[in-house]
TrEMBL record, chains A, B:
Family matches, as CDD domains: ETR (cd08290)
Protein's name in the database: Enoyl-[acyl-carrier-protein] reductase, mitochondrial
Gene source species: Polypedilum vanderplanki (Sleeping chironomid midge)
Domain of life (superkingdom): Eukaryota
Keyword line: Fatty acid biosynthesis, Fatty acid metabolism, Lipid biosynthesis, Lipid metabolism, Mitochondrion, NADP, Oxidoreductase, Transit peptide
Catalytic activity line of the entry: a 2,3-saturated acyl-[ACP] + NADP(+) = a (2E)-enoyl-[ACP] + NADPH + H(+)
Intracellular or extracellular location(s): Mitochondrion
Family (UniProt): Belongs to the zinc-containing alcohol dehydrogenase family. Quinone oxidoreductase subfamily.
Main EC class the enzyme belongs to: oxidoreductase
A Pfam cross-reference name: ADH_zinc_N
Keyword ATP-binding in record: no
Gene Ontology CC: one annotated term: mitochondrion
Length: 346, 346
């Protein structure tokens, strides 16, 4: 499928910006001459690179990550190794890889990355799954693992259950035997959405209205949630937190409603609830290519190989049509639609 | 000052209630015959017992602690040992003691308590200080110690700085060399209040308005707070949290505004702020007479002996006038006035 060409230098097409603004205005396709990789560097050919909401916000200058200009967009991808620096030990030409680090600028046909920024992807892992692993699936994995000890039979509750992360949370909970209750906004096609998410592995899907009134926890149909994952904020996070048991933890990783998280005083004092946040970018900056990071990648690769952890709904758009791609991303309401993936494979 | 009478039984006056309601309506003064203490029990004569807001809420049925009826009001006191059960090893008749446990019902002239519910108060500790130690001063101590590692030169910020706990926080911070910034509501006598709290040890006292605009943290006059203590909630807690540095923790122990704590999504995700609660009642139930509890009491006793940790403003009211005492407590707006302490010493 991929054509490998060994050569001493390479002319890359790069989606680059030198000022903050709307992506369609500030992103320009440029050519960049890449020299042969030295030392611990590798030359890779990018295959797929998603456009995530945080990438858009970074380009708009609304994200706390402030790149140096000129900057290349994108934070994740799947790529193939084309050429090795002389000190590279753990990769071979032809290997499929993905970046563990963030801020590498992945919207480009070719890139020079360092050995310790990459991890090898087993051949059996589908490429679109691999391309969408390092932001959303890693976020879902860490949030389930790092805040509360969840055993099979415990319960997790999340809003935005139909978001890309939400769908990964559902699949991982199913794999680990964790009851998971998802909250979504009401909509005309709510029945189809519920069916889709339940097939993915959701124990129960509730609309925001139903979340307010549900008695599944009070009546003991499910144990009270130990962990709540919040990407909405405002009243919805408040309603969700009311279901949490003693010492429940709510982890916020997004704020689609643009309203602050509302925390009842009594829940903090008498139920010992804790409210924390998670940011994959910080985790990666702190953990790098640690044993923990490798263990996570290995687990996720295995789940994807087995077909238990799938890519979100997506559309592949050739990178030359990047303006169209941005338009498709920005026309989505929140995380509702298909993930747009720039296709560099041709 | 106290008259000790050894006797085999004792007729106690007890402020008791058998139904939830307004304290002045449901609390009745009753007589109760106490038998001589057996085994690990002690007979004590109560000297002083404060009326705390939580005591009122418990009697009103608005508190999560639900006593068995008939119940005796009150959760803290200072008392003198009158008679020992045969197995009591660590106390002598005449010792001054206070309860480490909660829910013992302290509004009574005499009580039978267990050895492991009490701790001995050194003779040099003033009795009013001792009587008001186990709720407010212990709350202040634990909140400063248990959530963030604060070193001398670090900064803590708190609202309700003029509350009883707030004043204890100020004094403890001064003892430990921790910068402490207090927020209070604006009021006609704001200058006197600021002066009073600064004399107590506050580094800076700001009105809510001033808190919003202050640049003392941005301009580096003080390091950004690592810990925020919240007993107000609503917008005030939001404004306070904005000053916290990376990984700052806000601990909520009250909600005077009766509004939920507002937590900005971006602070959770990008600044890694954490929002937790503290409830002294739970801490005591879990820790009992542990080494930690004894270490805390010893520290506080030493500070009180040295005159570095004072009782809050208070008024002593003879226990027979308990209806007047409740009236005085309930006429206070929040924690603004003097703490009412029932006086059983006569």
């Amino acid at each position: 499928m991929l054509i490998l060409r060994r050569r001493m230098s390479c002319l890359a097409s790069v989606l680059r910006y030198s000022d903050y603004g709307e992506p369609a205005n500030v992103i320009k396709m440029c050519k960049e001459q890449l020299e042969a990789p030295k030392d611990d560097n590798l030359l890779v050919k990018i295959v797929y690179a998603p456009i995530n909401p945080a990438d858009i916000n970074t380009i708009q200058g609304k994200y706390p990550v402030k790149p140096e200009f000129p900057a290349v967009g994108g934070n994740e991808c799947v790529a193939q190794v084309m050429e090795l620096g002389s000190n590279v030990k753990s990769f071979s030409v032809g290997d499929i890889v993905l970046p563990l680090a963030t801020g590498l600028g992945t919207w480009r046909t070719h890139a020079i990355y360092k050995e310790n920024e990459l991890i090898k992807v087993p051949k059996e892992v589908p490429l679109v799954e691999a391309a969408t692993m390092s932001v959303n699936k890693c976020t879902a994995y860490r949030m389930i693992k790092d805040f509360v000890e969840l055993k099979a039979g415990d319960t997790l509750i999340q809003n935005g259950a139909n978001s890309a992360v939400g769908q990964d949370v559902i699949q991982l909970c199913k794999i680990w035997g964790i009851n998971n209750v998802g909250i979504v906004r009401d909509r005309p096609e709510i029945d189809q959405l519920k069916e889709y998410l339940k097939e993915l592995g959701a124990t129960e899907i509730l609309t925001e209205e139903q979340c307010r009134a549900t008695k599944i926890f009070k009546e003991g149909k499910l144990p009270k949630p130990k962990l709540a994952l919040n990407c909405v904020g405002g009243k919805n996070s408040l309603e969700m937190s009311k279901h949490m048991g003693q010492r429940g933890v709510m982890v916020t990783y997004g704020g689609m409603s643009r309203e602050p998280v509302l925390v009842p005083t009594s829940a903090l004092i008498f139920k010992d609830h804790e409210f924390k946040g998670f940011w994959m970018t910080r985790w990666k900056a702190e953990k790098g290519k640690s044993d923990e990071a490798i263990k996570m990648a290995t687990d996720l690769f295995n789940f994807m190989k087995d077909g238990k952890l799938k890519a979100p709904k997506h559309e592949l758009i050739p990178y030359e049509n990047y303006k169209q791609a941005f338009e498709n991303v920005l026309s989505l309401k929140g995380f509702a639609g298909a993930k747009v993936i720039l296709d560099f494979s041709k």
